[in-house]
Amino acid sequence: RLSFATLASALDHSGPDHGALDLGAPSGTVAGPAVDPHAVTIGIVHLGVGAFHRAHQAVVTEDAAAATGETTWGILGVTQRSTTVLDQLAPQDGLYGVLTPGPDAPSLRIVGSVRDVAFPGTDTARILAAIAAPTTHVVSLTVTEKGYRTRPDGALDVTDPDVVVDQAAFRAEIDGTSGATVHDEHGHPAEVVPARSPIGLLVRGLALRYAESGAPVTVLSCDNIVRNGHVVQRLVTQFIEAVVTDDDSTGLRTWLASCVTFPCTVVDRIVPATTDAHRAAAQALTGVRDEALVVGEPFLQWVVEDRFAGPRPAWERAGATFTDDVTPFEQAKLRMLNGTHCLLAYLGALAGHRFVADAVADPDLAAAARELLLDDVVPTLVAPPGVDLAEYAESILRRFADPSTGHTTVQVAIDGSTKLPIRLLGTVADRLAAGSVPNGAARAVAAWIVFVARGTTFAGAPLVLDDPLAPVLRAAATGPDAGPDTGPDAGLVARMLALRQVFPATLAEHAGFRATVELHVTELLGRFDT
Ligand code: CS2
């Protein structure tokens, strides 16, 4: 297994190129941790230490530390859903590789910025203490769109069972906190109820921070969500509003308003799911098995609103862009890259293309992608400073076309009910308001509807529906008269557009948009072999 022992003797942390080392591997190179992980202390608590975080923020954080020599930006990574990541990282001292397959020789870098991992099911007290620790200056999140537990209108879903449990625990802690908080010998809170939702863990940690020190802190969402910083701030406020009454007078709200900031960010790197082939390629370079390996394309972008409550890593020294307004970057990325990703995912999966690279190599799908990008999305955007949107569109399609990443259409197709509103429906709303029906976006919506309704490729191969609303979607898709013998089910589009969890009424009731979606759905349904 990858560990300090297997690497320490081979890698020199002080090397000018960050320990870059040619292990004499066939054609790849291995770079060691850019700083000595043993010397690093925790400065960041990250909720959602999955593949994307480890291939994106954790890499930039390590490079920033290498540039400045700072050793206080270690990451405590929290894995929410299961202990898998814990089981992968703990035996490796938190070390893991980032494999960049690349068109020629794969390259691998071993990252050492994740210094500790925790799972709320067993480690909530430790996580709350880490969020409260004055040495922690950033609490960041990559919990995916569905992880925020919001209602269709964007408000916190206070009926979510996990949120309910966390709010009860929060209430109990407030009662405890208003008096003497029970601490163990390390000064950490003693027995606490395991946190069940990221927002619950975050608020409970912030409340403990306020109670113990009141030290400023920055909450940094790194998810593909419009105005992600504002969203988290709103959810924190709504979580507290549902529990704290005025006579609690904890002063928590005042502290949040004055000592906690929620900057917005835009993150970009294609991070395909790690396969055994990826692990084998990494093992060929290092000679050891890395169960925590992640994979990333060569491209990486991070745009961050420069509004921090306290210290932060010098991420700009590692390629991050700081700005006072991320909006142009965010809109361009979510609508152009992620919206087109969804179009190619659903059209590509239906056509039987396993990889995004195959989908974008399909001339019809490439044309559909360019129509969405250039005819529908670009007219709704203000170009980020210095960015030519037509060239940005082509750069996105070049990245999608890279076969070496192995990004699959079904991976991008996951969670469509939460992704469509963020990535496509803003474009639809803006184009309709401008008096134009966005044919490309309507085609993407139609492809998603058919993907949900039929559940197979045109040739009949099964397609998995992985979506938090799967039961609701299936029920809507299989209406009373639906089925193979009814042919194209005219009621299908109306029923799917009636799903308020996904489509605002204004879109569903727009005759031109609905008719265009119908046309594409009928055309797609006509392509099934049976
Ligand atoms: C993809 C994103 O899986 C998906 O939904 O569209 O993960 C995409 O690869 C990243 O946002 C790229 O930055």
Describe this structure in words.
Helix 11 packs antiparallel against helix 13. The protein is built from 22 helices and 14 strands. With 530 residues, the chain is α/β, with parallel strands linked by helices. 45% of the residues lie in helices and 11% in strands. It has a 6-stranded parallel sheet. A 5-stranded mixed sheet has the order 1-2-6-5-12, with helices on both faces. Strands 11-13-14 form a 3-stranded mixed sheet, with helices on one face. Strand 1 (20-21) and strand 2 (29-31) form a beta hairpin. The chain binds D-mannonic acid. It catalyses: D-mannitol 1-phosphate + NAD(+) = beta-D-fructose 6-phosphate + NADH + H(+). Its EC number is 1.1.1.17. InterPro entries: 6-PGluconate_DH-like_C_sf, 6PGD_dom2, Mannitol_DH/Oxidoreductase, Mannitol_DH_C, Mannitol_DH_CS, Mannitol_DH_N, NAD(P)-bd_dom_sf.
